[in-house]
Specification:
- It contains 3 helices and no strands.
- 25% of the residues are buried.
- It is an all-alpha fold.
- The protein has one domain.
Length: 134
């Protein structure tokens, strides 16, 4: 019985690092969501002005591209968050049933980091789109 308590205590200790990553991803999702909201608000404003000028159409096209890139960033961040949750679940399952899931946990963690890198890359791409205009 004491062996299981030690295993579970170890799993809790190991789950702390992924939880910090999960917090970072949640913050990133919040920032991305705020940017998407601003894009949507701007698009609505431009559309409500009803201008058929080329500049208005170009801005709408840029806003559509930006929203698509932010959507990809959010999708990647959410996927990364889900993978981090799977890391924690796998760590606890491995501790509870005394199975070595180290390779699976490592692969899930690497995939979570790759998803976060992708999300940050999309975020950077969206920032470049904004800076190009100005």
């Amino acid at each position: 019985m004491e062996s299981h308590i030690i295993d579970i205590s170890r799993a809790i200790q190991l789950a702390v690092a992924p939880v910090f990553l999960l917090t970072a991803l949640a913050t990133l999702i919040s920032v991305l969501n705020a940017r998407l909201s601003r894009i949507v608000d701007r698009r609505r404003r431009v559309e409500s002005e009803g201008s058929a000028e080329a500049s208005a159409q170009a801005e709408l096209a840029l806003l559509a591209r930006r929203s698509h890139v932010i959507y990809r960033a959010i999708l990647s961040a959410v996927a990364g968050s889900l993978l981090v949750c799977l890391v924690v679940v796998a760590a606890f399952i491995g501790a509870l049933i005394s199975v070595d899931l180290a390779r699976g946990v490592a692969i899930l963690f690497i995939l979570a980091l790759c998803a976060m890198i992708a999300s940050l890359g999309f975020f950077l791409q969206e920032v470049f789109l904004v800076v190009q205009v100005r």
